[in-house]
Amino acid sequence: xxxxxxxxxxxxxxxxxxxxxxxLCIVIGGMVWxxxxxxxxxxxxxRLAHLQEATATLSGAASEKPQ
Length: 67
Fold this sequence. Notes:
With 67 residues, the chain is an all-alpha fold. It has a domain at 1-28. The chain is built from one helix and no strands.
């Protein structure tokens, strides 16, 4: 009887280990995914800022009257 209980406990500990490892992988994957989204949005934000600067420069140059 104790042998069977030990086997059941070992199966449960293995299942718990697999579940914990899967949860850890999901958490790390979510962190990486979030970081990549943040990097992409940061790049897009900077591109938009440069585009706005260029547009303001061009519109300012176009509005000046030639001497």
